Amino acid sequence: MTLEKKLHIAFDPVYAHPLPEGHRFPMDKYELIPAQLLYEGTINEHHLFRPMPCNDDDILLTHDAEYLRKLKEQNLSASEQRRIGFPQSPALTYRELIITQGTIDCCQYAFENGVSLNVAGGTHHAFTDRGEGFCLLNDFAVASNYLLHHKLSEKILIIDLDVHQGNGTASIFKNNPQVFTYSMHGKNNYPFHKEKSHLDIELPDGISDNEYNELLQNSLQKILHQFDPSFAFYLSGVDVLETDKFGKLKLSIKGCAQRDAIVFNYLKQRKIPCVVAMGGGYSPDIKTIVEAHCNTFRQAKDIFELD
To answer: Residues in domain Histone deacetylase (predicted)?
Structure first.
């Protein structure tokens, strides 16, 4: 008898609602993504799980104790809050703790089923000692260090295809040979001072589907062959779309889905478990953002042949 292999998705309603007034959009997407997937029958309620807040010990494998104390005691300075882009609040910190634990929890499901997804996450601008760019805690970094600390994986690949470089992630792992950071991002986009990933591919403005996906295929193939990871994290930002207000690239919805399929097919072929987080997306029409993100879930379920 074979055990059921099911898609597991981290989601908590708190993802969508704790931000201060005036800072909700594009947070609507965290509510609308699972709603759309449920409506169309791609998933049902049994695919969703609700994480608990991440504990301090796991966070402190990555982040400084003083920074964590400031987050929890609401002691960030005005300049630190400006760098993050949100005013501090207990609800915002709680949201980050939930998201981070969701990514850790997804790891176990990925080991079991090949892939698992977090409706939120991909907070790649958070550094060890500070937050930036709407990111307080770096969920991929925390989860990677959790796997290494508990000897659940020896070599981890972080695939960051958000349009913005994962500068926090690159900084955190710059001296760690067990984690390979790979960022394919807009050359002329935030952050304007970029850190050095193990591999950075800087994209010119206006790059379209075929050129983008050819670059991805060639570079990912080489990384997988040379680094040979035992686990992968994939940040599937949809701010690469032509419709995005800030992205400056020209991928179509179809091209973005093809991008996801390339990543999933390569990882599945090599039997590398993968955890996915959604990252950014700022198209003016929320339906475009939701559809592009939902494609990631559809591709994951189909390619990994999950119930």
So the answer is: 23-294
Q: How far apart are CA 124 and CA 146, in angstroms?
A: 16
Residue 269 falls within a domain, yes or no? yes
For residue 57, give every residue at least 6 positions away whose Cβ sits within 8 Å of its Cβ, in sequence order, or none. none
- Return the DSSP state at 50: -
4 within some domain: no
Task: Please state the three-class secondary structure of 136-159 as a single string.
Answer: CCCHHHHHHHHHHHCCCCCCEEEE
Report the CATH number that the domain containing residue 156 is assigned in CATH: 3.40.800.20
Residue 179: what are its φ and ψ, rounded to 5°? -125, 125
**Segment 211-267, tens digit of pLDDT:** 999 999 999 999 999 999 999 999 999 999 999 999 999 999 999 999 999 999 999
* C-alpha dihedral, 233 to 235 to 236 to 239, nearest 10°: -170
Q: Tell me which amino acid residue 216 is.
A: L
* Domain interval for residue 115: 9-303
| Residue 3 within any structural domain of the chain | no
Number of domains in the chain: 1
Q: Are 260 and 295 in contact (CB under 8 A)?
A: yes
1 assigned to some structural domain: no
| pTM for the full predicted model | 0.96
Asked if 247 contacts 288 with a C-beta cutoff of 8 angstroms, the reply is no
- How far, in Å, are 129, 137, 142, 199, 227 from residue 104 at the CA level? 20, 13, 8, 24, 23
Please give the Cα distance from 114 to 93 (Å, whole number).
30
Query: How would DSSP label each residue in 89-150?
Result: -HHHHHHHHHHHHHHHHHHHHHHHHSEEEESS---TT--SS--BTTBSS-HHHHHHHHHHHT
